[in-house]
């Protein structure tokens, strides 16, 4: 079984932290780096993501977050 993951486009993130607070598994943090918009941006830490989509639902920046469910490998 592959792990569930999300991707966050650094230059579409405004660092609002809504996804950080929404994630029940504490998978997301905000970096100290600055993106092209001048914001510290969110980063996926890849620990125990359930692909619940909460981060995607709360993110105000359309397209910043994409959620991928793990695929079963036979
Ligand atoms: S999909 Fe759910 S568990 Fe995964 S990072 Fe987003 S909020 Fe967290
Ligand atoms: S909710 Fe969206 S804009 Fe806000 S920190 Fe997370 S990825 Fe960035």
Describe the structure.
This protein is α+β, with helices and mostly antiparallel strands. It has helices at residues 18-22, 54-58; strands at residues 5-8, 28-34, 40-44, 65-68. The longest helix is centred in the first third of the chain and has 5 residues, at 18-22. It starts with a strand and ends in a 6-residue tail after the last strand. The mean pLDDT is 93. It binds iron/sulfur cluster (SF4) (2 copies). One iron/sulfur cluster (SF4) is lined by residues 8, 13-19, 42, 58-59, 61, 64-65.
Largest sheet features: 2 strands, antiparallel
Give the number of domains.
Answer: 1
Compute the average pLDDT. Answer: 93
Task: Briefly note the CATH topology name.
Answer: Alpha-Beta Plaits
Residue share in helix: 10-25%
| pLDDT < 50 runs, ≥5 residues | none
> What is the SS-derived class?
alpha+beta
Radius of gyration: 12 Å
Level-1 CATH class name:
Alpha Beta
Strand adjacency order, main sheet: 1-4
Taking the alpha carbons of the first and last residues, their distance comes to 9 Å
Task: Spell out the helices and strands N to C.
Answer: EHEEHE
Alpha plus pi helix count: 2
The ligands bound in this entry are: iron/sulfur cluster
Known CATH architecture: 2-Layer Sandwich
Number of strands: 4
The coarse silhouette is globular
The proportion of strand residues reads: 25-35%
